[in-house]
Every structure is written in structure tokens, then in C-alpha cells.
Specification:
2 copies of one chain form a homodimer. Chain A has 340 residues and is of the alpha/beta class. Helices cover 41% and strands 15% of the residues of chain A. In chain A, helix 1 crosses helix 2, helix 5 packs across helix 11 and helix 9 packs across helix 10. The interface between A and B is large, with 65 and 65 residues. The first copy, chain A, binds a DNA duplex (21 and 21 nucleotides) through helix 2 and helix 4.
Amino acid sequence: MTRRQAPSQRDVAELAGVSSQTVSRVVNNRTNVDASTRERVLSAMHVLGYWTNGAARALATGQSRSFGVISFDLSAHGNARTIEAIAAAAADADYSVNIVGISAPTEEAVQRAYTRLTSQAVDGVVLIEARILDTATVHLPTGVPVVIADGDPGRSFPAVDINQAAGARSATRHLLDLGHQTVWHVAGPRDSHAALRRAAAWHATLKDAGRTVPPLLFGDWSADSGLEAGRSLAAREDVTAVFAANDHMALGIIRALHEAGRSVPGDVSIVGFDNVREASCFLPPLTTIHQDFEAVGRRCVELLLHQMAGEGSGGPTPGTLATIMPRLVERASTGPPPGP
Amino acid sequence: MTRRQAPSQRDVAELAGVSSQTVSRVVNNRTNVDASTRERVLSAMHVLGYWTNGAARALATGQSRSFGVISFDLSAHGNARTIEAIAAAAADADYSVNIVGISAPTEEAVQRAYTRLTSQAVDGVVLIEARILDTATVHLPTGVPVVIADGDPGRSFPAVDINQAAGARSATRHLLDLGHQTVWHVAGPRDSHAALRRAAAWHATLKDAGRTVPPLLFGDWSADSGLEAGRSLAAREDVTAVFAANDHMALGIIRALHEAGRSVPGDVSIVGFDNVREASCFLPPLTTIHQDFEAVGRRCVELLLHQMAGEGSGGPTPGTLATIMPRLVERASTGPPPGP
DNA sequence: TCCGCCGGGCCTGGGGCCAAG
DNA sequence: TCTTGGCCCCAGGCCCGGCGG
């Protein structure tokens, strides 16, 4: 069979016996079309199976009704949840979402991604800047609204930010309040904004409380890296409390502790970060910091829409920061330190 | 500040003192441009910060160099991994990926999503049809290549399919081979293709082996639903082997068993499905069926590209089926049944 | 004269074809 | 033969003008 050519407004116009301009009006729900004319056009559209050509409309209007999302590691839990929320919020505003993944955390890769997106004529971009780039500032070609999620809020773009410090602080405080002398920390990778901010807040909280701060361990977010860190933790008698920078590493740590015959929370308490959906079914159920990824996604598109609206009318918001607060959810992996 | 208008080929042409046609040639890397002319054009492009307008190009060429992906539940583990792989494979072929989520498993929702995508002028669509639609056949407007992933391979579209039956069979057989009299199954939701196919294969395997088949339990993929199913399983003395339709439900089941004082795998063996990255850190490390989501994603874009290439030249592949084989990975959650 | 409905012409940014230098 | 420019087309949208009541 031969490839069926998509019908154009002209075809519809011809069949309905009107001008293509009238068809355009009907398509865009203009009021100044006679009811019977609209009816004829509509049925002609239906007969022909007409659907509006997005490329042509985008060209004519200068708007594509789509947003771009740039992200590392699309399948990482937090990113996947955030993207899902962005897609949902965008759909509500009748926008679609164009995803591009980044393999290496270099500015060049971000540039390429941005380029790919602008060549798709997106109306806005959200950059999920989970990793630190190799240069201090991304220099994005201007012209398209940008929002940064999960990145360095010090940038000159509007950003939506989960308050990592508050989350890490409440995790650490929770453990201290339980009576632990100090708390160990297994951080995420060194090139992660979130990891660094959590580690810094853990450090500060310990300092403020006048506690000694134990050496910092690093993982890569994976359960396996948590397992490894957990093994070195398990080798020391003096650790009674650990704050893991995410739930999966916490899982690995728990397994390591378990293998070493230390009980959780009897001998050592653990708190994670993320509140992964299955955290309540860990053994033991994990105390962790809940992050509201859905809110992040929603705020991202709100900020984008807001920038687009403000454009030209002395637009506001060149540096806005929307902060989402995480919260502690207590389950069974934490308790008082073992008696002497 | 006023909104800077994006420069066009015409602007570049003017600055470089050539025709816009020549600029077009340079942009598209045509060979028939004099080196010095190309140089002038290139530098003019650079000065102006020119970038090609995707909408205009799409209109002129009829190709947008982007694919659409329709999926339920973007953040579900398997879907997220598949989408990531699609995005990567698409990027390799210099395509970008337009995501649209579906909330309800109705054909109407799929139609809307498809409509949204075609209005974005995508060159192909992959439908991750994890849920069963409310009508037997999706009737997609023709004109754009479609590939179905993770859905009903009986459709008239090319599909890439993980062999769910083979996976479920090897899970069940593994348990039987270990000496268990029969194996219980906690299935995914009733409206899931994958869940149904796994359950059917479990059933058939038991029948073939002449075993009694215990009542089927249903969950919804979540760990919490696994917990619930696990509790009813734990209430019966005679269950020694359980095949869970995914790893997260397996986690919930393990927790339920643990709470009931039954050991895994001492008293009851468990195998999951997915091979989630952290499965090796469960307590105990989970025996499960590995699914190669990356392969699925890659094959999807291969099939799309293939359809696009075959178009017109007596195109082949109107019903192709690419099958990906899952495999059992043995860890510590399975063993022989307890002695009498 | 004003208003509701409709069509003509031109514009969006680029690409293909063809002829000319 | 190789380079280059003119012209028209892609599919729609907007401005403006016209027609009729």
C-alpha cells in the first residue's frame, strides 16, 4: 500500500466548500464562525481524518507546546519520579515533554542536549542537574526559559530545590536525640550536588552538637556500594548510628551489618534518604527522609509557565527559588544505642 | 530587556553576503559549497548565535527526528529502565524522545496520547502497553510507524516482547527442582499483560509436572501488596515455595514471612521477577528472573528505524516480533523444602 | 454605521529543483 | 564540473479588507 499523505487544512477546506482560513478558525475554536459552517468543517475533518500538523503550527506561532527535560540517569529513582511528575503537570497544561539523557557530567554534554532540544523547538527546558558539571557555570544559549531542579540553587536560573540540608539535619538530629554519641555517614558520589549538601549538613549538625565527626564514607547510590561501606562500618565496634545518603545504600549497609552479626536497630541504627516506596518493607522497615518528587515536578513546570507568561511584561523571577521541604518518617530501623 | 528574536538563515545569509540557500547547504553539510564560502557562513552563524529552527525543518522535510513514547506509570521500575534505553538508542540515531504518560488504561487515553504525539509531529511511536486496554484493539490512526513493547504480541503492530512465559516457567521449575511439592504464586494486577502471562506460565508448568495448583493471589506490584499477600501465605503451614511476579512484592512477602517467624529460605523459598538492581542486597539476597530492559529499548528503536526505512519500498515487517529472553539468577532466597 | 462571518494575501524558517555563472 | 542563487512548496496563522444584514 502506498503511504497515505496526511490531509491539510486546504483539503478540508475544499471538501467543506470554505476557505482554509475558516478551517483554521474552527481548528482553533474561534467564535467568529457560523454554527452550520463549523459543522460542515468538522465533518469534513472527520471524513478526511485530518489532524493538525504540529510542525507547521509551531513554525507559524513560534510555540511548540512542548518542554525539554535534560537529566542524567533517567532510571534513577528520584529522577524517574521527578520526570513522571513533570510529564503529568505538563500534560495538564497541554504540553508534552521531550526527554534527553546525558551520559557524562560535562558541560559539553549538557550543551549538546540543550542543542538537541532547541532544535526540537521546545518552549522551555528543565535541567535536572543532579551531577556537578566540569565547569563552574553552564552557559546556556539564551532565548528559552530554563528551570533547574535538584542542582546548584546558586545559579542565575530559577530553581526548584529540595532542602537537602534540612533533611540531612533532621536525620542526624533524630539519631542524636535517640542518645547516640555520634553518627556515621555514607555519602553519595562526590560529583553529586545532593550528596555533597547532605554530607555538609550532617557535618554541621554534628559540629553544632559538639560531637566528634567520624570519617566520611562515599558510595555511588547503589545498594552494592552501600554493602561495601557497610562492611567497613561493621568492622568497627564503636559505630552505633549511620545516616545513609539514600535508601538503597541503607539497604546494602543493613545487609553488611546483618552478615557481621550486628542487629538493626539493636546494635546500630540506620536512617536513609528518599523514602523509596518499598522502604516500609525492608527488614527492618526503614526510617528515612521523605522527598516529595511530585512537588518538584509540578513546581518546575509552574516556574516554566510563569517565565513564559512574564516574558516581555517586565518579567519577574530571574532567580526564583522554590524550596520543597523533606520530612523524617520514622520506622523501625532506628532506636537508642545498645546499653554498655 | 526585550526578547531576542532567534536569527534565521536569512540573517546569516545577509551577514555572510550569500544566499540563504547556501546557508542551508552549509547547515546540512553539503559538499557543494566552496571552502571559503563555508567558512564565511560558519563564522556568520557563530557571530549571530544562529541555531536551526526545528519546526521549520520538520515542516519542510516531513521529519522531526523525534520519537514518541506512550507509557503508564513512568516511574515503575521496568518502564523507567525501558524508557531510558529507548532514549539512549534514539539519541545514538540522532533522535529525541517525546514522553507522554497515561493515567487510565483506556483506549481513549491512548488515543489522546497518540493525538498529542502526532500533533508534535513525531516520526514514530513506541507504546509500552503494560496494561490491558478496555477495548480489544487499539485503533491507531495510520501514517506513523508504531512499535509495541511489553504488550500483547498478538497485535498487528511490530512488537518487542520479553518472553514472560519462559521466565515464569524457569522460576517455577527452579523451585520444583529444588524438591518443593508445589509453588504458590503472587501475581501482578489483573489488567497487566505481563502479570497474566507470568501467571499462566506458572499454572501450566505446575500442571505439566502433575502438581496441584494452589489458589492464585493477586497484588499490584507494590511491596505493600506483597506484604499483604505474604501475610495470608504465612498463615498456612503448607507453603514452602512462592514465586512472586516482581521483586518488590517478593520483598513484602519476605517481610511478612519474617514477621510470622518463618525463615527464608529455611522454611519457605522465594523467587522474584525483574532483578531490580538492589535485589542482591535483600535479606536474604533474592533469587529472581533477570529482564534485559536495555535490550527491549534498543530493539524498539531498531524496529522503528526499520519500518521507516522499509516504507514505500514494499516495506517488510508488518507483524515482526522481537523476543528477549529473561534468565534466572540464583541467589540465597531459595533452597530445598524443610525436612519433615 | 456597525457587526458578524468569511476569504485573500502575506508571513513563519528551511529545503528541493533547476538554471545560470 | 562545481558553486551559487531564484523560485516555489511545506501547513498554518494573522491582518485586513469585503460583503451582507
